[in-house]
Amino acid sequence: MEIAIKLFQFILSISILVILHELGHFLPAKWFKTKVEKFYLFFDPWFSIVKKKVGETEYGIGWLPFGGYVKIAGMVDESMDTEQLKQPAQPWEFRAKPAWQRLIIMLGGVTVNFFLAWLIYSCLIANNGENIFEAEKMTTPLHYTEAAKKMGFQDGDKILTVDGKKQKDFKKLALDVLLSDEITVERAGKEVTFATSDDGKALAFNDPEPKSFLTPRLSPIIDTIVTKSTADAGLKLGDKILAINGKPVSFYDEVKPLITPNAGKIINLTVSRNNQNADLKVPVSKDGTLGILSFKELKKYNNHIEYGFGGSIKRGFTLTIESLTYQIKQFKLIFNKKVQGYKKVGGPLAIINKMPVDKDASGNVSINWTDFWAFTAMFSVWLAFLNLIPIPGLDGGHVIFTLYEMIVGKPVPQKVLENAQMVGVIFLLGLMLLIFGSDLFKIVTGSL
Fold first, then answer.
1. How far lies 362's CA from each of 232, 366, 385, in Å?
2. Strand order from edge to edge, sheet including 158-162
3. Which of 348, 337, 346 is nearest to 438 (CA)?
4. Which of 1, 128, 392, 426 is the most buried (most CB within 10 A)?
5. Residues 210-244: tens digit of each pLDDT
6. Quick one: which of 143, 146, 261 has its CA closest to 204?
7. Distance CA 106, CA 402 (A)
8. Among 342, 326, 372, residue whose Cα is nearest residue 162
9. CA distance 67 to 247
């Protein structure tokens, strides 16, 4: 059931993004009286699931859910249909239109993706407000893992700035650190600035939970129990964990490393309850968890902000730019020789696996629509950025050739366009196969 819900969310999100992206090309093309031969959701090699011709345009749904397209007459596109281009240009063809009109048509898709993300973020903010986990007010010490220490941190460090900027929201601080060049901390009463080591970033990035290298140190007081077997074993809300299998525990972040190796076993838990110690035998799940949480201590740092109409639009724009900036910066990790972030790059199967869902105490799965729309907004910005990369076969490739024509005053030779498009399509298909193959490999090896 969970995978079905995740798959449904993925298809719904992709469908919304693709249809609106292609509409961004379709509408200006029609506005400039350019013939649009096809408008497809998903690709349709060999056959389509549904198709219907209305006027001069065939609308359809393909069977390969990796995107979609509009086929504009007189344009060298991914279909590589060049027969029409051998004839003299007709006034209703893309190639016959002025360069500025062609540029608007090609930029229409990414423009819609950007404004869609802005709209979604603005609506989410207007409807839900925003929760800021105020980093500057935190007095709770931070837990620095071995990865963090390899980056240059020491126990007791208080982070002041990342690349010279303060981060108000602690939830974004770990990502900022991973993408940083230098950190300024308060250490033993003095300000210390150090360059973040790629060795530490590599260690953190290859952790199943990359952002866990930087967490607040909380008292191990249980404030949530989500597993029935744990409650049946005698563990109660308010219990303070003192030891696990005889090993002392002082902070909540020390609990997981002691529990995980005992997956599927019974552990001895010493807790403090009403100023008295109690010894309990508690089963650990096959996933290596107890089904307990300790986070309510952090609520005092949480600041909920409500925005009016104008404020929501302004904040939505800021979040759109912020999302775009983070995604561009992540290329630093992808192409870093030590971090080797490209190994973490996932395709459709990885995205489906990470689609957000809600689970109740009984294990029932449902869609969290707030998370769904937040994901769709983020993905919309990502698609806008990817499509602007100047690779033939993407919108960015067409934009570069059109800008060249506008600057030089003459078009790129047709043969050059065809060859460049062929190279671009081959490259993109190869990249798609590589990413999809990586997904399959991770499924087989159990690392997805």
1. 15, 12, 40
2. 158-162, 182-187, 190-195
3. 346
4. 392
5. 677 888 878 888 888 777 887 778 888 888 889 99
6. 146
7. 9
8. 326
9. 53
**Residue 280 bridge partners (DSSP):** 269
CB 421 within 8 A of CB 77: yes
pLDDT at 58: 92
Which class is 132-213 in CATH?
A: mainly beta
Please, which residues have CB within 8 angstroms of residue 197's CB and are 6 or more apart in sequence?
Answer: 150, 151, 152
Q: What is the pLDDT of residues 244-299, one digit of tens each?
A: 998 998 888 888 888 888 888 888 989 888 888 988 888 888 878 877 776 777 77
Q: Please say whether the beta carbons of 122 and 42 come within 8 A.
A: no
Listed in sequence order, the residues at least 6 apart from 193 whose beta carbon sits closer than 8 Å to its beta carbon are 182, 183, 184, 185
For the chain, residues classed under CATH 2.30.42.10 are 224-294
Instruction: Please say whether the beta carbons of 2 and 365 come within 8 A.
Output: yes
DSSP annotation of 355? -
Torsion of the alpha carbons at 50, 9, 331 and 183, rounded to the nearest 10: 170
CATH annotation of 224-294: 2.30.42.10
| Cβ proximity of 97 and 76 under 8 Å | no
Structural contact between residues 173 and 134, judged by C-beta atoms closer than 8 angstroms: no
